[in-house]
Amino acid sequence: MKVKEHVVVVGAGFAGLAVAQRLQGKGMKVTLLDRQNYHTFLPLLYQVAAAELGPTEIAYPVRSILRTNRDVEFRMGSLKSVDPETRVVVTDREQIVYDHLVLAMGATTNYFGVEGAREHAFPLRRMEEAVPLRHHILSRFEKAVHARDPEERRRLLTFTVVGGGPTGVEFSGALAELVHGPLRRDYPMLDLHRDGDGARIVLLEAMDQVLGGMPEELSDYALERLTERGVEVRLDAAVSRVEADRVVLQDGDDLPTSTVIWTAGVQGEPGPERWGLPMGRQGRVRVRPTLQVEGFDRIWVAGDLAWLEDDEGRPLPGVAPVALQQGSHVARNLARITQGTPLEAFRYRDPGMLAVVGRNAAVAHVGGRSIQGFPAWVLWLVIHVAKLIGFRNRLLVLVNWAWNYLFFRRAVRLILPYAKEPVGEEKVSSPR
Amino acid sequence: MKVKEHVVVVGAGFAGLAVAQRLQGKGMKVTLLDRQNYHTFLPLLYQVAAAELGPTEIAYPVRSILRTNRDVEFRMGSLKSVDPETRVVVTDREQIVYDHLVLAMGATTNYFGVEGAREHAFPLRRMEEAVPLRHHILSRFEKAVHARDPEERRRLLTFTVVGGGPTGVEFSGALAELVHGPLRRDYPMLDLHRDGDGARIVLLEAMDQVLGGMPEELSDYALERLTERGVEVRLDAAVSRVEADRVVLQDGDDLPTSTVIWTAGVQGEPGPERWGLPMGRQGRVRVRPTLQVEGFDRIWVAGDLAWLEDDEGRPLPGVAPVALQQGSHVARNLARITQGTPLEAFRYRDPGMLAVVGRNAAVAHVGGRSIQGFPAWVLWLVIHVAKLIGFRNRLLVLVNWAWNYLFFRRAVRLILPYAKEPVGEEKVSSPR
After folding, report:
1. CATH for B117-264+352-407, options being 3.10.150.10, 3.40.1490.10, 3.10.180.10, 3.50.50.100
2. Is the ipTM reported for this complex over the cut 0.95?
């Protein structure tokens, strides 16, 4: 009997999970690695940061997702290195030999070398980043209650979001609803109503429109809705420096703020360059149309980490549909190798773009059509709830949303002590 | 016009919240202090540790609870000291002058000086303790997957609960359901079925019965159900020493275990002795029947921190009904002072005792009657859901429970990086 080929998949995000799930029953042995024991539904991560959802509502244990899949074994561990020569993956816990390796670790925040950004700005790409950000935001209000100096109070209550892409737009919209909704009622002494000057939410975008890739009418709609909901949107506002208590713009303007959220850029998770893989731009690995790494037939990349240009030479965006489709494609190509049929080139079927500005307000560009307002919001809701993994999560998220929607309330506003960086095994295990 | 008397309440647990809520409209100004911004429903804390509920399901922001109460101002801060002479309370953020002070900080874990217990055992009294414990437990299983040595694996999967009171019984029952239910399915390679020897849950009780205060038939019932559900209950088993990887009993027996949960004792939160208040036993403050501290007419104590004996000289137990009733009583006595009517003595109306062993199995001693099994479990469920603060929380908890009940599943099994100790304001605020 032929020995089963061993496929090691690194990363249990959309791409990695798609590979693992699509390889079921294809005659291969699959090991799925992730540094966390859970999959995170990243498109809703900003809602965790805005205290709209709890972490458990958008995350689900990987072992539970794969429970019925007998071809996949999950291993929790951090990827340390890959040796393409010996086909060995090294984690912080073990060494694993692969026949094929799929890198699906995704992307991390890109600060573009802006001075002070890494030190002082909050990233918003992972659960371990969203939760401390939420606690930071909520604790600004508790701190402001005690602030005697009006300037100090104003600085504490100024929240600056850098980057007017989907994450920046969605997060600043959600933050505005949090601040001018439940927090206004929780802190009557801080004068947080929408037209007051108690709190400021500032969205800084370096280009001349928000939601760059969208048609202009949708960008304009999003801009209007954000403004109407109390977000100060500043276009053509490039950040030159971030300090502990201010942001300095390239035009010299200076914004006192004690919270900066950086959503302006992404880059591939570090590592691949060190292991000798060919790199595209943004720290992403250059792949062939089959999604194999150029020059490394046994290494595949799917999702945000892959650098692949479309027919017009533009890179594919780092969004969930690309990750899901690439993950499935890698699985199909791996099956083709086993069957001895020729590999196929990946083709992205663009389902359209969606961004939500807040309650009843979203924009969608689907099949060449622009949709905005309530219909786009319902579309967004239906798609996201349908895609959330696990019936229970969907139900809880729906209950939460329905509650928020009906009563403008958020119960997730607990300031819990979270570690900011992933803590090691042994540190977690020590009770003191 | 008379200046309103200023009542400072320390602690937003059952007792402190009861004081604050009952003082509404009584012509006093109330400041409620807590080191957290949320109230925790402590009777269900063990379910957070057992991954049955998420933190947000049993905690609720204090400001939201008190939103409609215009006489109360909430201040987040840690109590540092009290000066009864000058009537000043000092927190880590401010000084507050009081006319009356209500101490309702509750109790903390008492290790009774057992060697190594403070260093190596997990307490289970606060949200910030339950969440790291959950992560520790879940990460034992991930670690066991990698353990080559069978003894090491067995040690990793031995969970030792010290103390057979309600918390110990409820937690070990819930842990058994977690391990032999969803975790057994998540970790088929670990052989976790109930009659297997993959994992051990050991409950150590120094006395000769579990649930000490309960009638013997109920203790026996709880013991049987726990045993049937896979908990090894050891009576007359007093702990002499806790080490990083074992527990040593007073009879010299030695239990290799990498997780020890200490539920064996409580003591009042420290502080009052230092401020010169008269102490009863267990670090609790000696109060008169009016709930004023002996010798300090303007300082009141309610809840677990109060040392008050009943007519037979037995101290009142540290349970939620005592805290709620004492909180209300302090509020009524404060109102009597304003009205110039005589103070009244506190009388505890015992509603009975309840403890849940697991699915369909609980014991209740109510009005002299013993109830066990499914009826007691339903009673427990109804009472706890009804008491949970906030309709939304109740609804979410019900959804979670219903889901767990119907499908024997738990989705809260995320190993998130939590800080073990409450982190300071500034540490929370630093993103790196």
Report:
1. 3.50.50.100
2. no
